[in-house]
## 1
Amino acid sequence: MPDKVSGRVVLVHDWLTGMRGGEKVLESLCRLYPDADLLTLVHVPGSVTPVIEHRKVRSSVINRLPAPARWYRHYLPLFPFAIEQFDLDDATLVVSTSHCAAKAVIRTGRAVHVCYSHSPMRYAWDQFPSYFGPDRLGPTGSAAARHVVSWLARWDRDTAPRVNRFIANSAHVARRIQQYYNRRAAVLHPPVDTGFFTPDHGAPGDYFLVVSALVPYKRIDTAIRAAAILGARLKIVGTGPDADRLRAIPATGIEFLGHVEDDELRALYRSARGLVLPGEEDFGIAPVEAQACGRPVVALACGGACETVEHGVSGWLVEPGGVDAAGDAPRFAEAMGQVEHLPLSTAELHGRACAFSAERFDAGMTHLVAQALEHPHAW
């Protein structure tokens, strides 16, 4: 537990609509700062764990627009206005967890703002084609979106000085922060509950597993096509706006499970032949959870997976090379067919995952926040 901060502590999170990797970081922060208020753009009651729900949660004006739980991503152009309306006049410490707008909250001069960054705003920088390309919106819609997103990119860059200290969830994201914000960032990997995600030492089942939000840049279609080439079963855990498109891909043995509770997720990890991570992740918590359960990983050799998966030891890293999902699928299929030949036992895989434990995260976060409070100048 960190030393008690003198004054009001405020946590800021982009949105509370489900438990993903970012929300698990927030859950740890709620335990570290049990008296902190929580500000968020959108709050869907019951969508996150009691540890988070029991905060004093204040949502933005976005939450009062029609169907915010379903349509909040469509309100993206309003996020800058909404995040800047929060009143932080009496805050001493602001800790934001941000992949979109939370880092741009406006603090007073006496407050210290530490941002745990999952990524600079993906939509505004290198992920525009995945979300707003002509194949998504049509030529006219894509051209119109580009004007809005270009403005968001400038806003994202120009609001970076509102943060005293950046903490990146991976070295990959630290490089992105340097590239887009011209700021340094400490690296602290997110926490994984390695006391819960454990092996059961049973034999693996006959399926591969994907655990991911169903959004374009995750490239779940690569995993579906790879499983079809291999003739393997594939179970997909997660929800998102890309679900209908993915379900329409012609392939057999594909099972969409939607949202599952943690107990079921652990059971799925334990019985899988391996986890498949076909897209570039900023960090990617699922590969660590899978290894904690004693299962290997097949991942794209980009981004955070390169920091959590050792090629040829705890999994296979597949070099990108195809121009689309179909182009990379054969390489993924080949790697998936080799997972049984990796050298580590389930216990050894779990031991590697323990390097990402919640205890390590809590100690690191406490240390970095204390540094920022002692030396609040921008870093």
Note: The chain is about 35% helix and 15% strand.
## 2
Amino acid sequence: MQVNTPTQEAERLEALRQYKVLDTPAERSYDDITSLAAFICEVPIALISLVDAERQWFKSKVGLVAQETSRDVSFCAHAILSPAIMIVQDASGDERFASNPLVTGEPGIRFYAGVPLISPGGQPLGTLCVIDRKPRTLNAYQIQALEALARQVVMQLELQRVSAQLAEALEKMELMAGLVPICSYCKGIRNDQGYWSTVESFIQQYSDVGFTHGVCDHCMKRHFPEVAEILLPNLESNDITSDE
């Protein structure tokens, strides 16, 4: 069955990219969560699945060898269409999945339960899901635990994202705290590659600061005296300092 695409798919994919987690090595912090999910839900397979543009990629997996599958056959691609947990008690009797190769072939999925991983900005990144090779369901306690573990996955992703941004900001601060070569005449700045640029270009390169331009009172008086007489009648000539 054709999988629908979430609304604002471009924004969702951009949110996923910002975590810089796709194709990274396995990590104990995530593997502990999938192990707990499999244990609590009493299933042989548990996954942290991130739904990319054309694939679902597994950041962590228990009971499965594959590292990714096509998005076209992904149960998780269906699960991210709603913020609530998606439970399929018997995939072989569900018209959405009965002919799915993951059902008719390996790993022989029958039961699936997936909780969407929702970013703080409201974007579904993927799921924490549990899978069984036989039909079944989850009790209320297991559903509650799986939802709580899904929130922990998002918290872990956020922690790593913020930590990376903090490290990058500190690197920029160290750069700005160093000696910056400035031209004595035009006030241009030389970067690490030896190229000269404006102060605005240099700061924008190493920070998120934006600029608007205007004319200060002293420069107004010096360069546009006629305008200054009208706009700045109280500015005395002796307030002007020379930079020559």
Note: The CA atoms of residues 120 and 154 lie 8 Å apart.
## 3
Amino acid sequence: MKLNLKAISEVLSAVKDYLFPYEKISKKFSKINSQDDLTIFIKEKSAFVTQSTLYGYLKTRMGLKQNMMFTDDIFVESVNKAKWNIFSEAVTDLTFYSVSFLNKKYNINNLDPYVMYETILEKEIITGLPKDLCEKYKSKFKEKINSFNIKEYSDKNPFTNSCNALFHWAPIADELKELDKEIVINSIKNKWMLVVADLEKIPVNLK
């Protein structure tokens, strides 16, 4: 079996990030004063949700086998594929949610969701996001903008795409995922609740 050391290193690094307490991540954001600030918030929180739910699910399902599995090339490749697909959907959900929420709470209308989304994904190419996947999700995001309702999005199941992505892309046998579905979906919903709570309490000055 050939070991892909770079891919294994990336996965283990992400697992390490997942082990950091949530408070350590949330302290990075004391205010949002620009679209750039909001873009960073969306990127960091989407990464947090992706890592904590995907790797949390994998660690729970694999148990003591996790170290062995992370040295398997095929498994590592499937984890990375899942990570980037879930992350891309998470950024989609949080970008639309943030724009809708800030419009509703502060009457902010000058944000460009596509510019934020494009900025986040293109910067992730240097950390491993495949270029073709980046272009695929940028195109999907453009299509979704056409049906995006800024006044209603934040109130109507705003994180459905990423919840479904976690369930779909997690490299776990289908028969096991069906047993875990409710728990998996609830786990990512709970993480999004933490992110929403953060956004609600961070001082925002974007007018």
Note: The CA atoms of residues 34 and 157 lie 26 Å apart.
## 4
Amino acid sequence: MKIGEVARMIEEFAPLALQESYDNAGLVVGSPDDELRGGILLAVDVTDEVIDEAVELGFGMIVTHHPIIFHPLKRLNRASQVERCVERAIKSDIALYACHTNLDSAGGGMSWRLGTILGLQSMRVLQPSASGVADTGFGVVGELPSPMPFGEFLGMVRERLGVKVVRHSDVVRDAVSRVALCTGAGASLMEDARASGCDLYLTADLRYNDFFLPDGDFTVADIGHFESEFCAIRILFDILSKKITNFALRESARTRNPVHYSM
């Protein structure tokens, strides 16, 4: 099997045409004509630890959610983690593939999976894609089977997603029925959340002033970027495991959150 065949399997679910203009999804390192060696390792980010893991396993491909390269590289002199990891991947003959904003926007993609984990029903896209393709776009909004007290629902979020700290704005309603969410950095969807009539909007990477924006209409909560996007690994596993039976496919044991919390 060639690297390009693996890429096509992923892109059938999350077409590259759905990625944002600033993104760098797709095959970042390697050639689509190269033969796949050993197996595929799935992670959130390309890090030294993840490359170590792939080398130890003898795997020739790493598929992540975040692209290792966002901006053009002017040199490869190991001066940064990006340069170091790209150089190591090349020397180790490891292809690097990223499925980023196209996986965010795909129908059944990131926010859909997170909503399912949290028990949302009757989900619909929060910010539909300009592509016009049904069920594509950023974020989802859905209903809980029955209203839950605000604190109880956030407790469930912490438990199911491994969230250590939740930052949130003023609590507007004691009970939560309608929940909007967007994996990763979703401050730009704040007005879409308002228009959805949600009680609570879950996302990540919020700045100080973002917590004023709900202005009494709903509560916004920052659950952490990594925590909201860890589900990417399971989505990618589900996509590939249905089509690849003769190569090893493994979820990384060393993918990690770069953010630490002191309690």
Note: The mean pLDDT is 97.
